[in-house]
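Example for tutorial group B:
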């Protein structure tokens, strides 16, 4: 399909791509701390990962809850347009409750990042 020149070009491109992709790892290897600092780096990386996953899952849950609330409200208004005001009020309260879960997840994520109670044990 590629021909003789195409195979050589593809091999050259793959070699250059491998070098470009692997070069940051070589530079990062020099920046890795030695000795006891591994636990500090691992703790900080785990805290960042936990905060990101926690806030992400909280946002997914709130998005599903808000979407479900909006779906139910639209269906209810479609069935009975006369009670739109009451349905909208109930929907907005429900959406605020679902959104508060994301705010709680954000607070917990910020605590994990900046006020972690276990940091004093690890960062000695």
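The residue assignment follows.
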């Amino acid at each position: 399909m590629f021909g003789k020149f195409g195979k050589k070009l593809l091999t050259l491109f793959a070699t250059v791509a491998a070098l470009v992709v692997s070069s940051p790892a070589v530079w990062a290897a020099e920046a890795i701390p030695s000795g006891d600092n591994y636990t500090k780096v691992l703790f900080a990386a785990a805290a960042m990962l936990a905060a990101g996953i926690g806030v992400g899952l909280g946002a997914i849950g709130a998005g599903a809850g808000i979407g479900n609330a909006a779906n139910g409200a639209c269906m209810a208004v479609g069935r009975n347009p006369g009670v739109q005001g009451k349905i909208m009020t109930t929907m907005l309260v429900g959406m605020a409750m679902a959104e508060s879960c994301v705010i709680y997840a954000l607070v917990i994520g910020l605590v994990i990042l900046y006020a972690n109670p276990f940091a004093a044990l690890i960062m000695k």
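The CA atoms of residues 44 and 113 lie 8 Å apart. Compare this with the pattern of hydrophobic and polar residues in the output above.
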